[in-house]
Structure formats: C-alpha cells, structure tokens
Amino acid sequence: xxxxxxxxxxxxxxxxxxxxxxxxxxxxxxxxxxxxxxxxxxxxxxxxxxxxxxxxxxxxxxxxxxxxxxxxxxxxxxxxxxxxxxxxxxxxxxxxxxxxxxxxxxxxxxxxxxxxxxxxxxxxxxxxxxxxxxxxxxxxxxxxxxxxxxxxxxxxxxxxxxxxxxxxxxxxxxxxxxxxxxxxxxxxxxxxxxxxxxxxxxxxxxxxxxxxxxxxxxxxxxxxxxxxxxxxxxxxxxxxxxxxxxxxxxxxxxxxxxxxxxxxxxxxxxxxxxxxxxxxxxxxxxxxxxxxxxxxxxxxxxxxxxxxxxxxxxxxxxxxxxxxxxxxxxxxxxxxxxxxxxxxxxxxxxxxxxxxxxxxxxxxxxxxxxxxxxxxxxxxxxxxxxxxxxxxxxxxxxxxxxxxxxxxxxxxxxxxxxxxxxxxxxxxxxxxxxxxxxxxxxxxxxxxxxxxxxxxxxxxxxxxxxxxxxxxxxxxxxxxxxxxxxxxxxxxxxxxxxxxxxxxxxxxxxxxxxxxxxxxxxxxxxxxxxxxxxxxxxxxxxxxxxxxxxxxxxxxxxxxxxxxxxxxxxxxxxxxxxxxxxxxxxxxxxxxxxxxxxxxxxxxxxxxxxxxxxxxxxxxxxxxxxxxxxxxxxxxxxxxxxxxxxxxxxxxxxxxxxxxxxxxxxxxxxxxxxxxxxxxxxxxxxxxxxxxxxxxxxxxxxxxxxxxxxxxxxxxxxxxxxxxxx
Length: 726
Ligand code: ADP
Ligand code: MG
Known about the structure:
Strand content: 5-15%
Largest sheet: 9 strands, antiparallel
Low-confidence stretches: none
Helix content: 40-55%
Bound molecules: adenosine-5'-diphosphate, magnesium ion
Number of domains: 2
Number of strands: 19
Oligomer: single chain
C-alpha cells in the first residue's frame, strides 16, 4: 500500500503485532471497587460512631470532626498498605483541566535506623504542593506560591496501581494561601450547595413538608479516537498537539455510515475490556460502549453518579483510556477534532438534580402537566439557558472545541434548549396562561405479535441541539471531549440556583393562600412570566439550518458565539460576575482569574500548533516535496534527451505548491513574532483569526502536495492509514 520505508515499517509492525495478552475478566462482583476505600470498607475498620459521621459526610456533605478524620486516616493507611501502597497523594484539579498529583511516602525513618509508616488526620486533611507551577490567573505572585490541597471526604479515596508500585490517591480541593480556589472542585461543591439551598427554598414554598438535601448528578458520554501508536509516533502533530495539522482526506471517509454501531474490531474490544476492568476496580460504573460515527472513533459512558464524584471519575476515566491505550499499542486521542473532515469528538454531559424525598426533579413522570415540581425545575433551566447562554458557551470554549462547534456536525454555537414536542407543548400552554391535558407518549405497537409493545418516550431526540431534554435529564451536548465536566456542571448548577432563587421570590408574590389550587395558580403565573421573558431560548427545529441561525440572532436576540476568542470575554459580563458572586460560587477575583487562565491556555495551545505547522512544513513536507520535484525534473530532462514526450504538468504544480507553502510559512512566522496587543481580548482574536487562518493556508498547500508527491516519498502516515489500519 505504502512504499515509503518508515510507513511501510509501521504497517509491518501493526500487521505482525503480537496481541497484548488478555486475561479472562474476573466476574464483576470480584473486582468491583476493590481499589476504592468505600463506605463498606470503612464500616469494617471504623468505630460505629466514626463510621456514622463519615457516612453522613459522604452522603449529605455534613461537616466532619477532625478527630474522625484521624481515625479515617489511620484506617485508610492500613487499608492502603495492605494493598501494597507505599505512597499517598492528594489528587487535585487545576484550572488547566488536567489532573494533578504530588506523591509523598508513608515512610519516615527514625533515629534508630528503623523505618516506620506514618499518616494521620492532619496529613490526610491538608497537603502543600508547590502552588507556583499551576496557573492561578493573577491570584497570587509566584514569590507567594503557597497553595494547599485539602481532602474532599465526599469523593472516595482509591489506589492507583502502576507496574512498580501503588499509590493511595486522595481527592482534594486546591486553594491559595489567601483562600481562593485555584481549581475546579471548590466551585463545583459550592455550586451544588447553592443549588441545594435555592431548590430547598422553592420546594418548601410549594408545600413540600420534608425536603432532603439535593444533589446534582452527572453521566458523561466520552468519545475518543484510537490510532495505532506506530503511526501516532511518526506524527509530531499528534504527539504534541493531539490532532493532525496536516493530512489530505482519505478516499473513503465516514460517508457510508458503516462504522456507527458496527461490530467492534477484536483488538479494540480487548482494549475496551481492559479499560472497563480498570474502571470497575476503581468503582467507576462503565456501562455502554460502541463505535462512533467516524472510522476509528468510539464512545464509553459510565452510569451517572453524584456530580462531584462523577467529575473526579471522569478525570480518571480519561487517564485510564490513555494509559491503557499505550499497553495495547494504541494512542487514544481525546482531542475534539483529531482529523479534519472527519467527525469530531464531544462529551455529552447528562445532568439532573434530585434528592431522597422528591426524587429526580427533572423526571416528568407519566403526567408532566400535573407535575408542578418538574415544571418549576424545567422552567428554571429554560430561564438559565436563556439568561446565561453566553456563560454556557464560555465554559465549553477551548482551542480544540472551536473546530467542532458550529461546524454542522456538532451543536451550533448558539445556545438554545430543546424540550421535545410534549414538554414544549406544555410550556407553550403555560406561556398562554393555561394548562390542560396533553397527548401522552403512548405505546409503540408494531403490529407484530412477537415484539412486545413498549412505552414510547414523551419526546423524540434532536441531535442538532446543544442543550436537550432527554426524558429525565438535560444533556449538554456541546461539551468538548477533552474538557473537564466540572466547568459545565458548575455553570448549570449555578444558573439553576439563580433561577430557583428568582422563582422563590416570584412565588412570594403570586401564591395567595395555602390550598393546593392557590399554589398551582401561583406557580402557573410565575412560569407564564418566565416563559414570556425567556421562552425564546426554546427551540425544537434543526439547529444546523441557516434559517435558525438567522432567526436566532435576528428575531430572538440569541448570540452566535463562534470561537473561544468570542466566548471567553463573556466571563467578564456584569450578569455573570453577579451570578457567581450572589450565589457564592466564585468571588469576582476567582472568576477574573479563570478568564486569565483560560485565555492564556488558548493562546499557548495555538502558539504550539503554529510552531508545529512551521516546523513540519519546513522539515518534513518541504524536503519530501522537493526531493520528488528533483526526481521529476531529472526524468523530464532524460525524456527530452531521448526525445520522449513528457508530461511536465505535475512539475509545475508541485513547484507552485511548494512556493505557496513556503510563502505562507514565512507569513505565519512573521505573524507569530507579534507580541504587543491592546488587550488580552485582542490577543485572543488575533490567534483565532490571523494565526489560525495562516495555519490553514500552509495546510492547504501541504495537503495539495500530499496528493501529488509519490506515495513512496511521503513521510507522514496518511489519513487512510491512521483511520483504517488496526
Ligand atoms: P445516549 O447515547 O442515548 O444519550 P447513553 O446511555 O449512552 O445515552 O448515556 C446516557 C448517560 O446519561 C449515561 O451516563 C446515563 O447514566 C446518564 N443518565 C441517565 N439518567 C440520568 C439522570 N437522571 N441524570 C444524569 N444522568 C443520567
Ligand atoms: Mg447522549
């Protein structure tokens, strides 16, 4: 297939690869959560009193006595050492979206030369990594680099095994010496608390006697690509940027739709099973797996969990996907757009809120029109999406996700909310001030006696909506595959808290009396007002269509926010600052630091990509193309000596493309040298527009050359090879 020596070598390696040995998987009950310090394990190791205190903390976030922490620390250490761990590490989630850890030994040596292990409550509660190596967005100077990690007892500790040892991992928050959050966990916990407070207020107001603490839940569907590492290692762009910066399209792409839900290749299936086994040991409930739309693309979705735990688990899941891929000779690409022209990867964040007394408040039940709690919470989400659409757009903004959003395969960059026909109809009625019976989903009866009729969902699905109601939860579909789910969860919880606070205040005005009909009337009045102000965010049509883009912007006043450079500045909007301040989720200083960090990340990412474009064009593509040009020139002159007619059109075209590419490279290099900008916002726009378009210009010529240069002289693995050879 390929004639190029290194590519040929890679293909040889792949086709003659010894499969990674697979063990027969132990049954789920033997491996489930074996590496997690679960409540069950605590029950065996702690006194009854301490266990009860820990259980209350884990289940409802109740405050924990430091003495209990001491007992837990001791039990945790004994368990960890019995599992072979000799190190412990506070695991935290800095603003880069990564997972960070600093390892400390359990061991200390005594003066008598003996080594003993030590771990106590204070070591468990607080760690002190060097904060200066993590971005803080101006919260503190590097000479005042103190940063603390503090144990989050609501997310269970676990053991991470590597080939040569094991580490006890303690999920933690990360804060500055001055007490500001430098991470994604603190605001997530605070957003949950704000939502709980507001939701409790509303539920009490509408007559609920008993209201248990509310928690948000999250189930995230993770898409990813697998490429054989023999190919990935030959591509500096995949290694350093996680996506291909060059590459002509393959003759066959995804047009046949033959990969989606197709049979999973054995090698991939073995990989998936190995991933699942590791996840099960870590107590992560991996539930579904399937091929995705693009060749080489797959999805994994765990069962949903409490948002804080789900967010930690999601970070672990990404690490496990990547590490296990290496063991199976794959590179796992989590980038939102590894291949141009091929579907990108997203992470659908399924989100709901509920508690032990009222259940899932986003579950409409069989009679949604009579389920007032549901209508209130669903209405609160509608208001949130409308009022804070730009914030929702900003929290999913990244250099990678810019390639997906608005690109007709992924949700548009306009935030609207899809409810499904039945719920939309109910809210339309509410907007008119009345609420009668409605069509129910009904039974799906195929008229085939052997197929048992089943109940239909109350609404269809809409793949073109960025934010969709899917039966008993909302699904934020515009999140990027590489992103932490914490940002979106924080935004959703906080906007919900804000809406519920507004609803509570409105109910005070509209509910006249305690009877259920008075409450019902009051609720409908509030929702009617809500729909009048925010109903424009509800949209059930085709989100990809041009009419929608026009209507959304011109008639409905929704914002179309195409790039990260356009989105991030919305973090500074007055309403957004007020939202986070009023709910106590982020102080203005903490919010401002987030803008700084995310802007810097974006600029750095594009800078790395631009540097790679320059170096790959000069050092890989230019040499290959000019060598081939020299060959052709030689052939042409021999032909003319022999008096043979020679087609020299390719010579001309290659010459032109090389020249065009090098000119574009020179322009890009010059553009990259610019280092003075009016503002950070101007710098962002410069990256999004000027630098990006010059990178595209270089690529245009380079990809044209790939289609012209002899296959045996092309040094980079092709799209066809990377996508189809496994
Ligand atoms: P689909 O691809 O059809 O959207 P999947 O089953 O792949 O659905 O993923 C749906 C995700 O939503 C899973 O993680 C699932 O556990 C999660 N989920 C289901 N119900 C809820 C809920 N009430 N709240 C939050 N997440 C939920
Ligand atoms: Mg989904």
